[in-house]
Structure formats: C-alpha cells, structure tokens
Give the backbone structure.
Amino acid sequence: MELCQWKQVNYDKSESEIQEGVLSFTDVELFVIEPFSFLINSSEILKTKIYPENRIIEIILLGEHDVGKVNIVAQDVYWEK
C-alpha cells in the first residue's frame, strides 16, 4: 500500500511524500467489500473509521468509476514498512 503523506496534518516536509507499507490484520472474522463488484486497484482512500469496541475498521475508497466500502472485523491491525 502506498500512502500519500503530504495531505496529512502531521506531515513533515523533510519526510518522503509517499510511505509504502503493508496493513496486516490478525484473527480476521469478517471481510466485506461493497458493492460486491468493486475492484480494489490503486483506489484512493477517502475516509477511514475505526470502531474499537466492535473491532471494526471501515475504509471508504474512490475507484475508477465508483465508491466502495471495505469493512474488516479483526483482533488487531499492524502497519509494517
């Protein structure tokens, strides 16, 4: 995954604008993409929400022709460079 850092509030101009890494989830109980036909392919992340009480991460993505939503229920999530 490539994250564009320059739009972030805490971005430091001395750091790289693009940060590459992998999101890893443990003990995944649910993975749902809506709509079902949405393809995750270089999609821009519009918004993320985390619901810790339910262990849910919701990611809203802008696709080439539509907007998609990914819901993941997992024990933990880790960012690895």
Observations:
- Residues 2-80 form one domain.
- The chain has a mean pLDDT of 91.
